[in-house]
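Entry 14. Structure prediction run on the chain below.
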Amino acid sequence: MKRKTIPAEVKEEVLQTIERFNRIKLASPDCRYLARFRGKYLYLYREDFGQVGRICRLEYKGGKVPWEMAIYKYSSDCYDPYECWFPGAELVDGTVEGALKAGMEAYP
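Output returned:
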């Protein structure tokens, strides 16, 4: 069985979205989002003053709303796709930018 992966063109678009968000919204050399791809998942991390922390995991679904977000919970050391009561949850809209914005609220 073929393992699901994120298409290369989608990965490139994601990286451009993150770079644009870092440049315009964060606009700080000391704070930036980082991306790691693994199979059908995109892991978002944020580097703040040299410290890298987990923010969320996005699962690629394709279609009109291509991403499903799971926030990282430090209290249980896991990504929780069912957690919807965190600051910024209302910003989650199935896009990478929505996840970046929600991450800024969840982990200021």
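The chain has a mean pLDDT of 94.
Filed with the rest of this week's runs.
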